[in-house]
Amino acid sequence: MIGINNILRRSYSTTTSTAAAAVKQQFSFIGLNQHVTFNAPVLKSNGTVLVSHQVEEKPFVPVGIQKKPLKHTFTEAQIGEMQQLRNDGQSQKKVAEKFETTPYIVGRLTKVSPEIRQRLIDNHQIRAPKVADSEETKKMRVDLWTAKNQQREYDMKVIKAAKSYEEIKYFRRAKHEIAYMANEETYDAMVSGQELLKPTLELDEDDLEQRKLKEEKKKEKKKSTARRRSYITDKEKARVNKQKKAKAQILSMMDD
After folding, report:
1. Would you say residue 191 has pLDDT above 80?
2. pTM of the predicted model, to two decimals?
């Protein structure tokens, strides 16, 4: 028997009489406090498999957790001795080793004095008890958390809007640059095409000579920008010739 609340219930039926198996599904929801009991599958002669279940009204009862009772064989005198050792400042582990038990049993049977407990807390040997916050402190903490998240959400929206604006500007700038380059190339192609389509005039020899003279006059004489050759001493010549000679010897050895 299965006790499930508000879960989807499925029922299947398989038919093997045809070439391909057919599966039929029927969906329904289980209501509140309903238990489902599944029956064993039934195989019919024609190959159909039936899987059925029953639903009954029964409130959900959680399974209780059984607590194990603490059992020990210590006498009142032994428990008092444990308490005295604990008051003297001995740890649960040392007391447990003396009485051959576990620190958990010692901690359940004895309690340390408040002064020693505070000293252990100050020495960071045990944890301090958790202080329960008041309702006002909890409410203030929730309000601060809400305000922080609202501010973060607002900042994220502002950053997203700024990024979108920058992306739009970049896209428009790139689009304009590409269009400008395309228009410039188109214009250059048109101009070059017009130059090719210009009619050529047959000029006389005199006209050609006059045109050449005019072009030569228009040309400006360019100044010589060649650097003068620096003066080389005999010592530098010998050093260069020595390097060239060594290189020639290496190349001849490689050829051999």
Report:
1. no
2. 0.28
